[in-house]
Amino acid sequence: METLVNSGFSTVTCRFMQSHPTNGQHFRACQVRCMRNNENANSSISEPSRMELEGHHNTEMLQESLHSSVSEQSDLKHNDIWKLFRDAQQNILYLNKQRLAAVEELNKTQKEKRVLMGRIEQLELGTQATIAKGALPKSDKLSICSELLLRIDSMVLTGMISTAEASDLRRVVMDNKVIVGDVFSHIEQKEDAELLAELRPWSDKSKRNAFHIVHICTEMAPVAEVGPLASYVTGLSCALQRKGNLAEVILPKYASLNLKQVKGLRKIGAEFYSFFNGHWHANRIWNGVVDGIGITLIEPVSHSALFNRERIYGYPDDFERFTYFSRASLDYMVKSGKQPDVLHIHNWQTAIIGPLFWDIFVNQGLGSTRLLFTCHGFDSQCLEQPDKLAICGLDPSRLHRSDRLQDNIKKHLINILKGGVVYSNKVVVMSSIQSKSRIIHSLSHGLESTLSIHKHKLLIAPYGFDATAWDPLKDKFLAARYSAEDIKGKAICKVALMQHLGLPGLPSTAVVGCICPEVLEVDLEKLKSAVWLASRKGAQFIFMGASKIPTLTTALASFQKELKDKNVRFINKLDEALSHLIFAGSDIMLCPSFHDPVLQVPLKAMKYGAAPVTLTFNNDGLSSVEHDFESTGSSQYISSVFANMTLSQALDQFKNDQTQWNLKMKDAMSKEFSWDAECYDVHIAAYTSVRNL
């Protein structure tokens, strides 16, 4: 900029820097001019004029002013910079604190994760160790409930609680099965007193919404097996518990028991007494769990020889043995305070419980309990002298009557099986092929009049099979799994079976399977006819069975040599894994009978997509016999689809009409024949009926 002091003066120019600190721009050069008076123009130059002095003085002042302004602006800028620096430092410190907090939180989370993963690993190792030892997984709530109920029995026998309180606690356990299973997951680590303290607060919440069933029987799979009773008791009990009910089993403590199958087996310290042969005798109690079912084993102290034998049945004193057990079971129930909805007894061995219950025990705390009697056949009835009833406390004169235990044919004897029919509220006859009418009039073995009088109590129930072990969709033994909805895996299993046994041919070749636990004389002749017929039809034949009779084993080996047929295989042993593959790989399964309560071959065959055909003679080969299928839905289905099919017809249909054959097999596979199906429904109806009496 220019500053004009006086227009008539000579000028003196000086420059200074103008600063603009307010907007942050750089300094800019400025020019100032000082004007000298003309009248002093001739004056010596060496002498400074007043104006010059003043101009110089003003310049110095201006420069000082400018320097002061610059300094002030510089100070302001410096202050602003420091303020920004301090603010930046504070922000950095805050961010560092946040970063440190985040790192600390991350470390904490990672530490918690490591701890959690360690716990999960420990739990997995514990579960694997438990399974490796063969113990029941603690997630099995029904098993825990069964163990807890047995502990309640122990509390009663040791005098810790009364029978009335025991009954209330059992109802608490029954009605809170899921919660109880979680709360008492470590029951084995708790003493009875601790369990009792935890159970008592729940007593007021008890509600009745499930059946409590106690089986008193002489067999139970897999600990004591002879006939169909064993698999029936276990299969039905498991089905009951899967549907929310509670089932318990009381057995004699045989010397031949397979105790390795009993989990958590323990002896209760206290003993109880039962009446036998005019005296009271001590008994020990053992309890444990089998397949999630609580079992109680009764061991006589002074009469240990009654059950300390190689076999379960077949002794001259069987009546005394099982009468002792029956009476002891009822005495134990009273002593332990058990009050089940239904007391379920089986066959003649525990049929004596009927008159014992109503004549002696109904007024000893069992007034609300009812009786259901299961009979697996009327051919074994147990006839005895009437006076033998006195050994268990019964009055022979009251019971030796035609409407009670007197035998219908041999009037001087009593019939123990008849007593079970007469004194039970319901009677279930186990049969997969017979109707009530035919059982009463043709298969009663002298009890026709008794069954006719009590026919309103009779129910017919079919056998079932264990669907947890026999299901092609879950079967661990199969090369491929399959179902009615997706049957492709069956063809893979068929090829695997042929390769395993070295059978030639194509997958389109019909495969006929036959599994028998033991070969009998008549079965061998039927078997030969079936093999010849299958060979003529171009089919492959697989037989699995075993015989303890040397002559039959020799005859079977000779027949195999005689055949010289590369399409036939005989397997002289029972192999579990191979039996599953035979069911899956066969198109047809030969059955000794449709009434097969032990192996249940017809039911398993249909589940695995194979046609069941019975082994019987007729003029042109093999055919089925005529069956009376009036009773059950499963029987009616078998009758309408497979009962009248011969082996020859089955082979022809398989060869000539594959489409229709596959539709028939898929339909059979879709049916439900396990213990959880019709057998369960019949028994639940029976339990409901007797509880409402």
From TrEMBL:
| Keywords (A to Z) from UniProt | Glycosyltransferase, Starch biosynthesis, Transferase
| Coiled coil (UniProt feature) | none
* Starch synthase catalytic domain boundaries: 212-451
Tell me the superkingdom of the source.
Eukaryota
State which pathway it belongs to. Glycan biosynthesis; starch biosynthesis
Query: Has the keyword Glycosyltransferase been applied to this entry?
Result: yes
Biological-process GO terms, alphabetical: starch biosynthetic process
Q: Which reaction does it catalyse?
A: [(1->4)-alpha-D-glucosyl](n) + ADP-alpha-D-glucose = [(1->4)-alpha-D-glucosyl](n+1) + ADP + H(+)
Per the UniProt entry, the Enzyme Commission number(s) are 2.4.1.21
Any single GO molecular-function term of the entry would be: alpha-1,4-glucan glucosyltransferase (ADP-glucose donor) activity
Q: Which InterPro entries match?
A: Starch_synth_cat_dom
For this protein, the record's PANTHER family field holds: PTHR46083, UDP-GLYCOSYLTRANSFERASE SUPERFAMILY PROTEIN
User: Mind telling me what this protein is named?
Assistant: starch synthase
Q: Which organism is it from?
A: Protea cynaroides
